[in-house]
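Milestone M4 deliverable, item 7.
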Amino acid sequence: MMRLPIYQVDAFTDTLFAGNPAAVVPLESWLPDHLMQSIAAENNLAETAFFVREGEGWFIRWFTPVNEIDLCGHATLASAFIIRTIIDPTAVTFRFRTKVAGDLAVSYADGLYTLDFPSRPPVPQEVHPDLIRALGGPVPEQVLAARDWFVVYKDAATVRALSPDMALLSGVGRMVIVTAPGDGGVDFVSRFFAPMDGIPEDPVTGSAHCTLIPYWADRLGKAALTARQVSARGGSLSCHMLGERVHIAGHAVLYLEGAIHV
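Output delivered:
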């Protein structure tokens, strides 16, 4: 039997019980894929991150309760937080290799972790016939797509009021970002739904901001943006558009540490 360390971190918040919880499992060497998937299913969080030391950096992978995904922001932030908090308190830069998302970086300064991620601007796409009906709200202003469907509404109140049909939404072929101009002093708001990946609504989604940031930077004509994901838990993000890359910054707090026996 193996004993593996595990941590649960609330990301994109400086307060416990807010932001997006991620499980983080540092490894000495890779486990079989089916075992990592079983651990993620047992954790039953939006994502569990596993990472292994590789040279001067780390190789990272992310699993939802039902499958491995290509990119995850909050669990990457949580992983950098655990490296600095538990493994190497002197670290201020963190480099991660991934299977398909390329090389990622995280930097730390004054309690804030900044993700350096690829920009994924949305483009016109033939809309799935069930998408708008599944979201259940009024007709949106615009529907685009990148990795995810990207649905733009007129105001933040509309985004907050959406109550999607998750069974219908699970069949639209992509995860779904909904967004609108911000209120309360932020530039834009969003929500994120991924029932096809076992996540009806994700509390705060870093990877979605790879698409949100280029869209709103272009629409608002500004590179520095503030964002709020208006899920039930909620989270705040500081965003910056940098050519082919985006910067997404937030805080993190440790909720739990323990051991897995497998």
